Amino acid sequence: MSLDRTQWQLGKHTYNILMLGIAHQGLAIPLIWQMLPKKGNSQTNERLNIMEKLAALLGKERVAYLTADREFVGQQWFKYLSSNWGLASEESHSDLIGDGRRYLPGHVIFGNLAIGEAKSLPKRRCI
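^ thats the sequence. predicted structure below, dont judge the formating
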């Protein structure tokens, strides 16, 4: 699945859309969307709402991955994804990741991975 938000300005009207799609071969096919009544980023409750619509439509067990850009952050959001969907976050290439002794940028730790590959670190890390 792919979660994204887009904002269009057409004349005097602003259209802000939160959209959830099925990611397939580099393309996202829109499945569920919500018009946001404001400009700017989505709020956690708006994201939770769209994910619950997905759960009702497909069921949580059918979702293996969720991709989203850096707009979609927050402790409550990540806790929801982890506890309700079993999904974990992927870190940005510029985030510093540490083991308590030293910190390295995400691109140093994960930079050798090809698209579709994953890497698990052996113990908890600070970001």
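The chain has a mean pLDDT of 86.
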